[in-house]
Write a structure and sequence with these properties.
Number of helices: 6
Shape: globular
Helix content: 25-40%
Strand order of the largest sheet: 1-2
Largest sheet: 2 strands, antiparallel
Order of helices and strands: EEHHEEHHHEEH
C-alpha cells in the first residue's frame, strides 16, 4: 500500500513523496532462497491467514494449486455471510454492510496464535461438517456454502484415506487375479471433489434474490461416458 503526500524540504520547497507500507512482511522470502520448483511451504503461504487454504497453513500441501484459491473464495463468502448483515439506507444514515452483534461464528480463525492451529481448525470445519448459520441478509447463499463445505470435506477425507492407506491395501486384484496399482490421487482437485464445476454449479440452483444469477464463465460440459461412440448421421 502507498499514498502520496506533499512535504516541505530543507529549503522550504513543497515536494511530493510516496509513503509506502509493506504488508504481509511475515510471509516474505529472501530472493536467494527462492527455488524454481517452489516446493517450500513458506513460499506458498500467500494471503491473509483467515482466508488461506488449510493445507497451506498446516503444511500438508507444499504447492499452491487452483483448489487453494477456490477454498479462499469460499472463506470470503463464508465470513461475509456469517459475520455481516446488510442494512438499507435510512434517513440521515447510510446503509451497507455492518458487523453482526454478538459472538461471531469464526472469530477463532482471526484469533488463532499460529498457522498450524488455524489449519487444524479449518480442517475440522470441513471433515466434521461444523454447523454454521448465515445472517438473514445472506440466507440465499446458505445452500451454496453448504454444498462447497461438503465438496471440500469429501475431498479432504479422500486425501486422508489415500495418505494413510496400508501398503498391503494399496493394491487390488483385477479380474485376472493380478495385483494392480490404484489410480493416482489427483491433488489438484482432491480426487475430483474440488473443481471449477463444483464451485460454480451450485450457483445455478440458487433461489430468492439470487435466482437466475448470471454465470459469465459456465463450467464445460462433462466428458462423454466411457464406452460411448459418436455415431454419424
Amino acid at each position: 500500500m502507498y499514498r502520496r503526500v506533499k512535504v516541505k524540504n530543507a529549503t522550504g520547497v513543497v515536494e511530493e513523496k510516496v509513503c509506502g507500507v509493506l504488508t504481509d512482511y511475515d510471509l516474505s522470502s529472501w530472493t536467494r532462497s527462492l527455488t524454481e520448483d517452489y516446493t517450500k511451504t513458506s513460499q506458498q503461504r500467500t494471503g491473509t491467514p483467515p482466508f488461506m487454504a488449510h493445507g497451506l497453513l498446516d503444511g500438508s500441501d507444499n504447492l499452491h494449486l487452483y483448489r487453494h484459491d477456490a477454498e479462499s473464495i469460499f472463506y470470503i463468502m463464508l465470513i461475509l455471510a456469517t459475520h455481516y448483515e446488510i442494512q438499507a439506507p435510512t434517513k440521515g444514515k447510510g446503509g451497507g454492510a455492518r458487523v453482526r452483534k454478538g459472538n461471531l461464528s469464526f472469530q477463532d480463525w482471526f484469533d488463532a496464535p499460529n498457522y498450524n492451529m488455524l489449519g487444524g481448525i479449518k480442517s475440522d470445519f470441513f471433515t466434521k461438517r461444523k454447523v454454521f448459520e448465515v445472517s438473514p441478509s445472506f440466507k440465499d447463499f446458505r445452500c451454496w456454502l453448504l454444498q462447497l463445505q461438503k465438496s471440500f470435506g469429501l475431498g479432504s477425507g479422500a486425501k486422508q484415506q489415500q495418505k494413510y492407506m496400508e501398503p498391503e491395501e494399496s493394491f487390488g486384484e483385477d479380474t485376472f487375479g493380478e495385483n494392480t496399482p490404484p489410480a493416482t490421487f489427483d491433488e489438484e482437485t482432491l480426487g475430483g471433489h474440488v473443481t471449477y464445476n463444483a464451485l460454480i454449479s451450485p450457483a445455478r440452483r440458487l433461489t430468492g434474490e439470487l435466482k437466475g444469477l448470471v454465470i459469465r464463465y459456465p463450467p464445460p460440459p462433462p466428458p462423454p461416458a466411457s464406452g460411448t461412440q459418436n455415431v454419424g448421421a
